[in-house]
Specification:
Shape: elongated
Strand content: 15-25%
Structural class: alpha/beta
Strand order of the largest sheet: 1-5-4-3-2
Number of helices: 17
Helix content: 40-55%
Radius of gyration: 36 Å
Largest sheet: 5 strands, mixed
Oligomer: single chain
């Protein structure tokens, strides 16, 4: 802690002549001068020392007011040289404006005051360096431990003796320490909107708050607050910013790899179910025991990421853990009837399709059913469609499955081969166009493409199949093939 005027006066036996209520001010440095206007040479926070060589009863008042403007911590007035006592006008004005004045007797040289303050400043600087170093070590241990970013945020709050918030790019609180600090989040919204990079210092009530952007591709923020943040606090916050930026980028990269692995297992489950199930058990502790309900949940990329994050966040807390993965435009979830509702609660604002219960060997069928039901939910703008309800009276039910699959495979084969080249998305575009009864604008909007792009794709369908989409019979055949 910095040396205060009260501590200095007590240690050197200096009498206080004015400004006693402000004696707890910290002394930043000592500056002796006989100038009547030393403001140009001051930074604020100094204890100014003078013998009053150029001061008298007439000039003292204005002199004190200039020192207040310069934000000095206090004035040390040496007596026994040019003045036997401190001018009364100086004492009166200092008392009026609240400037502490210490009387320095001739037996106490100014160098003694300078030495006392410099020792205190050096000790404070050393303590700050030690505190900063220890803080950096503790934060680093927290960052490499198993607690992740949350552990860093909690340790940071303890180190600065205040609170800390980790926020995402939209200002939502990711981590808070202590938990009650979440209440400061709304008060930072305006600052976050104005920030592009770097750091900003603001106030929320009685708290000084420093907000810094994190150096990540998905921008985030760290906000730290307390009554007043000192230099050591800010060094520690800077360390936390670097560690959190690195940790979040590593988490993002690792999370991407894990998500890709999940997607591969979903693909493997359709072709080699036993091998896929063994991998699930090895990596994630397995999947719920069949029969499964297969859910295919559609939504915007942002909504799908949010659902995936929500499933990951509570994955460990579920007694019957579902298996989930991204598959094309869907988040696919394998669960039991008991956990269907739990998953659907996380998919608010999205469209989910649910298969009939399927065995391990029938997963591929269940996935197709869930995707078809999800597309039906999108077309109806319904939150959930069950395949059993969707297909209960459909034409597909009247056709032998082997015959239907052979018919669909033959009819759609040229379109699928075209899509595999990466030159277009004919199957999805055709499905959407048929679902919207050939309405170009509605289907194009749903697909997120221009209507001319959609028209070009449908012309390509006609070219590859050699058939005319204006034919109701051909449309019906295509629709049947897409349901299989």
């Amino acid at each position: 802690m910095a040396l205060t005027l009260r501590e200095l006066a007590g240690s050197l036996g200096l009498a206080v002549r004015a400004g006693e209520p402000a004696l707890d001010r910290a002394i930043g440095w000592v500056h002796p001068t006989e100038l009547t206007d030393p403001n140009a040479f001051l930074e604020g926070g100094e204890l100014l020392l003078t013998t009053g060589l150029a001061l008298d009863e007439h000039t003292s008042g204005a002199y004190v007011r200039r020192l207040v403007e310069a934000r000095v911590a206090g004035l040390g007035f040496g007596i026994g040289l040019s003045h036997l006592s401190i001018p009364a006008a100086l004492v009166a004005t200092a008392a009026e404006v609240g400037l502490p004045v210490l009387e320095v007797p001739r037996r106490t040289p100014f160098i003694a005051i300078t030495r006392a303050v410099s020792r205190a400043v050096a000790a404070d600087d050393y303590a700050s360096i030690v505190r900063t170093g220890r803080g950096q070590q503790e934060l680093t241990r927290a960052a490499v431990g198993r607690g992740g970013p949350g552990a860093v945020v909690r340790r940071l709050a303890r180190l600065v003796g205040g609170w800390a918030l980790l926020l995402d790019a939209g200002g939502a609180v990711i981590e808070a320490a202590p938990a009650s600090a979440r209440g400061f989040g709304p008060g930072l919204a305006g600052e976050l909107r104005r920030m592009k990079a770097g750091a900003r210092v603001t106030r929320i009530g009685e708290h000084e708050v420093v907000v810094q952007t994190l150096d990540t591709r998905a921008r985030g923020y760290l906000a730290v607050g307390k009554g007043a943040l000192d230099a050591a606090d800010r060094y520690i916050v800077n360390t936390a910013v670097s560690l959190l930026s690195l940790a979040l980028e590593q988490n993002r990269a690792q999370g991407g790899a894990v998500r890709r692995l999940r997607s591969v297992l979903i693909e493997l489950l359709a072709d080699k179910p036993e091998s896929a199930l063994r991998s699930m058990r090895t990596l994630w502790g397995g999947a719920p025991a069949p029969p499964w309900s297969v859910l295919a949940v559609a939504g915007t990329p942002t909504a799908r990421r949010a659902l995936f994050d929500a499933l990951e966040a509570e994955f460990e807390d579920l007694p019957e853990r579902p298996f989930f993965a991204e598959s094309g435009p869907f988040v696919v979830v394998l669960c039991t009837a008991d956990t269907e509702t739990w998953v659907l609660d996380k998919a608010t604002g999205m469209q989910a399709g649910i298969s009939v219960p399927v065995s391990l060997e029938d997963f591929g069928t269940g996935l197709r059913q869930a995707e078809q039901a999800s597309r039906a939910a999108q077309a109806r703008r319904a939150p959930v469609v069950r395949f059993a309800d969707h297909a209960a009276h459909g034409l597909v039910e009247l056709v032998d499955p082997a015959v239907a699959q052979a018919f669909a495979g033959t009819l759609l084969a040229p379109l699928r081969r075209h899509d595999e080249t990466g030159r277009g998305d004919l199957i999805a575009s055709l499905r959407c166009w048929l679902e919207h009864h050939g309405h170009w604008d509605l289907a194009a909007t749903r697909l997120g493409v221009h209507r001319h792009t959609l028209r070009n794709r449908m012309r390509k369908v006609e070219e590859l199949t050699g058939r005319d989409l204006d034919s109701p019979g051909f449309r019906a055949e295509l629709w049947l093939a897409l349901q299989v």
